[in-house]
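$ ./design --mode recover --in tokens.txt
reading tokens...
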């Protein structure tokens, strides 16, 4: 029995783990769908692991009457146990990619749990992200979205204001998390993938990603990419939100939001400025 336990502990400690973060509507589901083609890798859309970790941390801190029972080593073991428990059905030989837009803001914590991990951040011009969300809403006019707390009414401008709230907005919180990591000591852990470059040259971007992760290249099929989470999207009130098209390609279209929305957030795309990359984040574009 002891040898079996020791073996399982060894497998856990050797497991490779990386994280997918960044901005919504920027290709993270597409990236996961491609990574899943590689039999050595396991990836999916947003998982509940970040929420589980966030719920457990306060119970082990000064906010709890039991905080005196915990030191950092015990906290580290428990948090790592959440990851390993959630992915217990995935073989230890596979490289795991857990997705959540808040991981960028938790880079120091992730370093404590998985010292060699990288955080892949999918980005897109903020104006086009807002446009993508608005277009999705217009495709489903009979439904209310969890993104807006199932509230009816409002205009595109009130919805943009809600989206860009840095405390809990669908776009704003992710943007603030990414910006925090970008200007921190954790920036060198970041691998930033620009959506436009990704869909225009997916093979080049994926080959560079594998090189950054220290993994051998893989021949992906960019004409047959399949991924969908209809139940999850229905629960969000936004059917089709995580459905990936079969072929990876750039599709030109006219924006559906007013031009002043694009103008207002033109300065929010900080990753497009090489001189602003002071901490050495890797940008694949």
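writing sequence...
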């Amino acid at each position: 029995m002891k040898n079996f336990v020791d073996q399982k502990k060894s497998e856990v400690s050797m497991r490779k783990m990386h994280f997918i973060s960044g901005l919504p509507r920027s290709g993270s589901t597409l990236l996961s769908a491609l990574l899943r083609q590689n039999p050595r890798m396991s990836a999916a859309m947003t998982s509940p692991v970040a929420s589980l970790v966030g719920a457990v941390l306060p119970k082990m801190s000064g906010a709890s009457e039991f905080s005196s029972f915990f030191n950092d080593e015990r906290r580290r073991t428990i948090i790592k146990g959440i990851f390993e428990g959630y992915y217990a059905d995935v073989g230890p030989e596979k490289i795991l990619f857990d997705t959540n837009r808040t991981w960028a803001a938790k880079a120091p914590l992730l370093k404590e749990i998985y010292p060699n991990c990288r955080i892949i951040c999918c980005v897109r011009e903020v104006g086009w992200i807002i446009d993508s969300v608005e277009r999705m809403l217009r495709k489903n006019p009979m439904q209310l979205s969890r993104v807006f707390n199932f509230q009816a009414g409002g205009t595109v401008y009130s919805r943009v204001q809600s989206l860009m709230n840095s405390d809990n907005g669908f776009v704003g919180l992710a943007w603030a998390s990414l910006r925090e990591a970008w200007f921190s000591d954790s920036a060198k852990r970041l691998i930033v993938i620009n959506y436009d470059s990704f869909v225009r040259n997916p093979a080049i971007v994926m080959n560079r990603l594998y090189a950054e992760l220290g993994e051998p290249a893989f021949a992906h099929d960019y004409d047959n990419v399949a991924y969908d989470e209809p139940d999850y999207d229905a629960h969000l009130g936004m059917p089709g939100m995580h459905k990936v098209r079969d072929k990876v390609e750039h599709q030109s279209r006219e924006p559906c939001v007013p031009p002043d929305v694009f103008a207002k957030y033109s300065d929010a795309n900080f990753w497009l400025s090489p001189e602003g990359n002071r901490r050495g984040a890797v940008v694949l574009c």
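exit 0
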